[in-house]
Amino acid sequence: MSAGEMPEAGHSTGSGSGAGPRADKPGTPDGHDGIHTIRASGIHRGWNGIHYKTGLSAKNVPARDLSMNVARIPPGGVAFAHIHVDFEVMLYILEGTVRHDFGPNLRHSIINHAGDFIFIEPGVPHEVYNDSDTEDVVAVVARSDASEWENIVDYDRETGKVIENSSV
Question: Are 111 and 68 members of one domain?
Answer without folding.
Answer: yes
